[in-house]
Amino acid sequence: MQAVTVSPKFQIVIPQAVRAQLNIVAGQKLQVLAFEQRIELLPIEPARRLRGFLPGLATDVPREKDRA
Predict the structure, then answer these.
(1) 52 located within any domain
(2) Which pTM was predicted?
């Protein structure tokens, strides 16, 4: 388990091993959640990275004529 210190400005540094494991890069946005007695940081993925994450999903849904 790695420990971090909260600075006087309430900042922390994410350890390099954790950044590498989660592929976190400088400038990336993280979602912050308070859950019970812990803080969770979740990487926010851009919508384009979600493309194709549901293989086999039918995309041939009938649409109204005014919707292309």
Answers:
(1) no
(2) 0.61
Number of domains the chain contains: 1
The span from the CA of 18 to the CA of 32, in Å, is: 16
The answer to whether residue 23 sits within a structural domain is yes
Residues 7-64: pLDDT tens digits?
Answer: 999 999 999 999 999 889 999 999 999 999 999 998 888 788 777 778 888 778 888 8
| Sign of the C-alpha dihedral computed for residues 47, 48, 52 and 58 taken in this order | positive
Which range marks the domain in which residue 27 is found? 16-46
Contact criterion met (CB below 8 Å) for 12 and 27: no
SS3 for 41?
strand
